[in-house]
């Protein structure tokens, strides 16, 4: 969720002390609406406009903090909201990497490529928003500002790049996994078809419910997803199989926006399949259904979360 996108820096090593979030002076009356943080994650920082079907970004790894602020009874333009924050960054020694407004950013496509906190905490008017990315050493900041008829909205994403290493296990006495069977042994025979494969072939589709998308966001969350791993294994074992990833959304926003958003979610999952799991691009495609196929009510938060999903649809046929 955000008016903030990415750049590319990957590091490995010990996890240092987490740097404190950037301290910016917000406009009078600004109230914190939402906050999220992670001590070790990846983030794409937008450093160029949306062109064609992509935009320039930096891929960062380290600790991340996202904070959304709301100004009620706001009379400021988006430039008036952004300018004082930009000045503070410059005074603090930050270099402005990229700055844009609405159409110069790329409009709809740019906004939905950003990883922002969800509405209503961070509202973005597709006709009036501004974005800024800045850097100071290993510290990166993304600012997104927008407004509604009554309120102003600001999101600050602070990314501190540092070495990342696996966390210590919570339970060091946990039982180790048994060693895999020796090649040629009875238990090392071709494994039975997995439950995932059975469901995909018997019902024609499988909901990839472990995928992580916030409301209004198209970027797949960081980390490993078991459903994608199982789907990749199925496609590798069945090179003639063809699958369409179909994105679905909740009912927040217009149908056109949600169809476009759902397709981007599906494409984000498709790209993860190709780049992380080595799936052949010809075996997998992406489409979007918007909110036209709900599996729960959109009147509740739980229902909306259930409706935000990607499904793998098996399109292969047998003669």
TrEMBL record:
Major location (coarse): membrane
Region (Disordered): 163-192
Keyword hit for NADP: no
Source taxon at top rank: Bacteria
Positions of the OmpA-like domain: 201-318
Residues annotated as signal peptide: 1-19
Keyword line: Cell outer membrane, Membrane, Signal
PROSITE patterns, sorted: OMPA_2
Keyword Ubl conjugation: no
SUPFAM superfamilies referenced in this protein's UniProt entry, alphabetically: OmpA-like (SSF103088)
Location in the cell: Cell outer membrane
GO cellular component labels: cell outer membrane
Pfam families (UniProt xref): OmpA
Protein name: Cell envelope biogenesis protein OmpA
């Amino acid at each position: 969720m955000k008016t903030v996108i990415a750049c590319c820096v990957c590091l490995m090593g010990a996890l240092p002390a987490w740097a404190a979030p950037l301290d910016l002076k917000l406009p009078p009356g600004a109230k914190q609406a939402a906050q999220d943080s992670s001590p070790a994650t990846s983030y794409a920082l937008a450093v160029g406009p949306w062109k064609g079907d992509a935009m320039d970004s930096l891929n960062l790894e380290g600790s991340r903090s996202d904070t959304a602020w709301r100004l009620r009874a706001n009379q400021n333009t988006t430039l008036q909201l952004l300018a004082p924050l930009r000045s503070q960054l410059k005074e603090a020694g930050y270099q402005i990497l990229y700055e844009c407004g609405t159409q110069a950013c790329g409009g709809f496509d740019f906004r939905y490529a950003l990883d922002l906190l969800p509405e209503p905490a961070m509202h973005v008017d597709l006709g009036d928003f501004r974005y800024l990315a800045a850097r100071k050493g290993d510290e990166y900041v993304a600012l997104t500002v927008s407004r509604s008829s009554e309120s102003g909205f600001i999101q600050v994403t602070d990314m501190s790049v540092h070495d990342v290493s696996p966390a210590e296990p919570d339970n060091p006495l946990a039982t180790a996994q048994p060693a895999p069977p020796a090649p040629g042994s009875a238990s090392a025979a071709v494994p039975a078809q997995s439950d995932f494969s059975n469901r995909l072939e018997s019902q024609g589709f499988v909901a990839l419910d472990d995928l992580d998308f916030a409301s209004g966001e198209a970027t797949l969350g960081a980390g490993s997803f078991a459903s994608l791993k199982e789907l990749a294994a199925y496609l590798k074992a069945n090179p003639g199989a063809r699958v369409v990833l179909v994105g679905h959304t909740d009912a927040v926003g217009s149908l056109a926006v949600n169809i476009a958003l759902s397709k981007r979610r599906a494409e984000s999952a498709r790209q993860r399949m190709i780049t992380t799991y080595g799936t052949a691009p010809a075996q997998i495609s992406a489409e979007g259904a918007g909110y036209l196929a709900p599996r729960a009510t959109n009147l509740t938060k739980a229902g909306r979360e259930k409706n935000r999903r990607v499904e793998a649809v098996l399109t292969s046929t047998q003669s």
